[in-house]
Design a protein that fits this description.
By secondary structure, the protein is α/β, with parallel strands linked by helices. The chain has one domain: P-loop containing nucleotide triphosphate hydrolases (Rossmann fold, 3-Layer(aba) Sandwich), CATH 3.40.50. Helix content is about 25%, strand content about 30%. The chain is built from five helices and eight strands; from the N terminus they run βαβαββααβββαβ. An eight-stranded mixed sheet has the order 3-4-5-2-6-7-1-8. β3 and β4 form a beta hairpin. The longest helix has 12 residues. It binds adenosine-5'-triphosphate (ATP) and magnesium ion. Magnesium ion binds next to α2.
Length: about 170
């Protein structure tokens, strides 16, 4: 499935919609060039899960944990990962043992040490918009995409309604 989102509010709104569909344990990869809206989408997800503080890309710390009401979300940004072995220092394996959701920007930098995702979102530029392609890799990922496709315009995406086009493949 592909979605075209025009403007940052639409991108955040999709994140808020996704938030309602996330159930741990889940690993989500966000793949796309610099500035394609990976952190914006993550911010929407965290807002949708009730987080009120700031959401910045953990470019230098690589990992930002969020304690949510019922479970934890770990936001990774591996852009500056010099060597996949550094992942060991982040205690990634311990994080995965927990009841948690993992969102990874720049997953390709993690190499083979990074666990496979349930869902991969590929983000790309398109003029003043972004195109998001959803590629599921597990039954949980497929269920999530199916749920998203069933409700293309929830209340939470009001801001995006007039700016959003859905294409199914
Ligand atoms: N759907 C959209 N349409 C237009 N602009 C967008 C959209 N989504 C995000 N943006 C804008 O793109 C810029 C970059 O967003 P963001 O920081 O989320 O990208 P990123 O993919 O996390 O970048 P990086 O790879 O550097 O971490 C921001 O100015 C944001 O407002
Ligand atoms: Mg980012």
């Amino acid at each position: 499935m592909k979605l075209k989102l025009r403007g940052e509010p639409a991108q955040e709104a999709l994140g808020r919609q996704l938030a309602g569909l996330l159930r741990p344990p889940l690993i989500l990869y966000l793949e796309g060039d610099l500035g394609t809206g990976k952190t914006t989408l993550t911010r929407g997800i965290l807002r949708g899960l009730g987080h009120r503080g700031p959401v910045r890309s953990p470019t230098f710390t690589l990992l930002e944990p969020y304690d949510l009401d019922r479970w934890r979300l770990f936001h990774l940004d591996l852009y500056r990962l010099a060597d996949p072995e550094e992942l060991d220092y982040l205690g990634l394996r311990d994080l995965l043992d927990q009841d948690s959701v993992l969102i990874v920007e720049w997953p390709q930098r993690g190499g083979l040490d990074l666990p496979q995702p349930d869902l991969e979102i590929r983000l790309a530029y398109q003029a003043d918009a972004r195109v998001l392609e959803f590629v599921p890799h597990s039954p949980a990922g497929s269920a999530l995409v199916a749920a998203l496709a069933r409700h293309p315009a929830e209340e939470s995406v009001d801001a995006a309604k007039s700016h959003r086009e859905v294409r199914r493949h």
